[in-house]
Amino acid sequence: MDSLWSSIEPLLDGVSTPGRYVGGELGARSPVHDPGRVSWLLVYPDTYEIGLPNQGLQILYELLNERPDSLAERAYAPWVDMEAALRGAGLPLFSLENHLPARAFDVIAFNLSAELVYTNVLNLIDLAGMAVRASERAAGDPIVIAGGHCAFNPEPLAEFIDAFAIGDGEEVVGEINETLAAHRGTDERWSDRAAVLRSLAEIEGVYVPSLYEAHFANGRLLGVSPRLPDVPATVSKRTVADLADWPYPRQQLVPLIEVVHDRLNVEVFRGCTRGCRFCQAGMITRPVRERPAEQVFTMVQSGLERTGYDEVALTSLSTADFSGIEDTVRRIISDPQHGEHVAVSLPSLRVDAFTVGTAAEISRVRRTGLTFAPEGGTWRMRRVINKLIREEDLYGAVDAAFSQGWRRVKLYFLIGLPTERDEDVIGIAVLAKRCVEIGRRYHRSPTVTVSVGGFVPKPQTPFQWHGQDTIGELRRKIDLLRRACRGVRGLTLRWHDPEATAVEGLVSRGDRRVGAVIERVWRAGGTFQEWSERFDLRLWLDALAAEGLCLDDVVHRSRDRDEVLAWDHISAGLHRDFLWSDYQDSLNEAVVEDCRWTPCYDCGACTSGALEHVVASPVPPAGGSQGTGQDLSCGDRVPVRVLGR
Amino acid sequence: MTTTLRFRYAKLGKVRFTSHRDVARMWERALRRSGLPVAWSKGFSPRPLLSFGYALPTGCESVAEYLDVHLAEEEGTPDRPDGEQSETSADEQRPWSPAGCVAALPGRLSPLLPQGVDVLAVGKLGDGVDSLQQAVTSCSWELEVLGVPAEELATRVEDLLDARSAVLRRERNGLQADGDLRPSVRALTVLGAVDDVPGQKVARCRLHAELATQPRGLRVAELVQRLGADLTLVRACRTQQWIERDGIRCDPLAMTGRAEDSFHAPHAEGRAS
Predict the structure, then answer these.
(1) H runs (alpha helix) in A486-616
(2) Minimal Cα–Cα distance from A351 to chain B, Å?
(3) pTM (2 decimals)?
(4) What percentage of chain B carries pLDDT values higher than 90?
(5) Chain B within 8 Å of A366 (Cβ-Cβ)?
(6) How large is the ipTM?
């Protein structure tokens, strides 16, 4: 297969940021293709700058290139100018390593980290030179696979993807590869494409949508059921039991051009049991699996040395909860090998003064801004969503931040949450103003930026039944907030476009019928819909109308307990009745504690997968649960496996 | 006295599609990996003290890029002449020892930089040397353009050189303004036709240009635009930067003072030429 580079190169003088298309990163491989290796093209369906840092894609990239029977290259969505140039020159989507056409690969695998990229997925399949609908693909075409958090409701993309991988990818990617290798033909790529898909469906955690039928009556989904007796009725997610077995990425890619999160990233644990009810990531990645502190340190040390980065982020859904986080960061910054200019960042700070103290200690360089996410404007609201931050915790954290040299504080909130009243919305402004006042004690012109997103109820969470606020209602709440924040010097209010929030709701909780809507939007030119300058609500409304669907029914309507949900046949391990009772608790403002340090409340995540939490300490870190100071440890009834390494 | 090293490096091949700022970040990472004791700025947000010369436009190649690296003073290090071999094992254990290593730097840094960025030479700067941005007065370029045969291009070049002024509307910081580019064209010659590109249908020519950077810089794209709207610049490589003082033109590495203070990397230079 010949490289397309000589044809691509002349196009690059005429496009923005041409460095996106050349590869050449530190850590990039140039795999040699041969018939004995199944070739994967790993695609992130957004720009290079957004996609390159994705750790999931980088982990699979390394695993597949380490195996003797597989290899992997990468591609990202070309920006609209480059796409036009490629189509104008009759060129397809290409890989960055060897600049090979996408169709030269046996597998095209998409990372789905956000729902608004779905039209890009269709566009990239088309740019690869294949039919966008799986049923219309040629027998010898690459198999199109997708994985990532959005795969927990695969139905909107069911018509376009040959197979979904649900949950952690580390183990299943090898099993998929072995199955594909067994089906490779001698003349054609696949001896029998239908048989390949049947075999993939036998792998635990793999969902092959064409083997399932979605039944509808009177405009309602009745169920998604297997077409064949030996296909499982429910597909359960895959979970890696112990992160210590997977110290990846070992060779994180260092890009030539600037990307988001341009730093070394080391995942310190996966899963979160704080129990925030709006958080899909926290629900679908349970249980908590900590990486041993020693391995974290080794990965940081070798990573910094290899990459030359001067910043390392310890990533997870709530890094301050990592057992012994202080010792770990102190060890990193006091390691003489890294010098005095290494910064450690904790991307997900817990809201309490204690955490800020740790942050102050470790960010001696480049102290720019600190971000906290109280999410709700009042204590009542925060009880509903189970984000148990008291006002004192927030003010203590903000006081600590301003007093220790930070000048900018950023606060994240959601609006449109279940049971929300106007006073909860105005409560956001009250908190923010108070934070500005605290800042004035220490600085002449402190800045507090309030960032407000519209709440999108996500599949596999307690709010999966809940009707999302309409565009008009979100706008009204934003106006309330704007009025309440007006005239306060140092207070900046930013908000997410409610129209984009509505469409995110549509593709998050849509069923198989939404696929046709996505296809129409794509055909009308609606790519890069997560980019505000490209987003166009009109395209979506027109497509919905053409398909006889409406936002009210899919997005804004609350479901009954027994209504079939589009993702009911996909299991994240969570019991449906646990999610429902947690939803009811939330409406009653009843809270749950973190099950890492308290007795199990049987959400199902551990028991369905025969798994346990893997943590180094069975007691909560200093600072308590979300800073509430409660003693949450309850002795030996806690179902954790304490690391004995 | 602090030490400043001036590096000359190439930017060739695919890496030419990265920006000037991208190259700066590549250097920061490479220098950290090398263990070279780079000085840092003081204050709220310390940065490594590196000064780059004139930005190379994204997409252009070069065999004449320069970078000044300011080194932190190392306490208790005896001031030994450069180039002398270090004799102690303690020196080997340290990532970089100031004595004896300058000559080895091109060979040590090139593998730490992306493919296509090669360190060609290095020298120690004397005191009071102007920064590259202040000092460099012109740059030499080798250009390849598509569109017209060599003879036609030669006529246009002659016309331009004969003209007293050559006005071009150009955009700077979003504002359009007419400017006379003639004073900035120090030299311009057609080197000949390029006819060894397979499948090529349009006439392709090679040019040499020397363009001033002061008082106003002229971009290669602007020069080609002035030579004719029917021309497309397909390749541009900066081949030299010049510092002119009192009518004498010299290479920025000649500012390092004594000739023995600069070290070249013949293999990298060979690859780059």
Answers:
(1) 498-509, 514-523, 537-546, 551, 576-587, 605-608
(2) 25
(3) 0.93
(4) 59
(5) yes
(6) 0.91
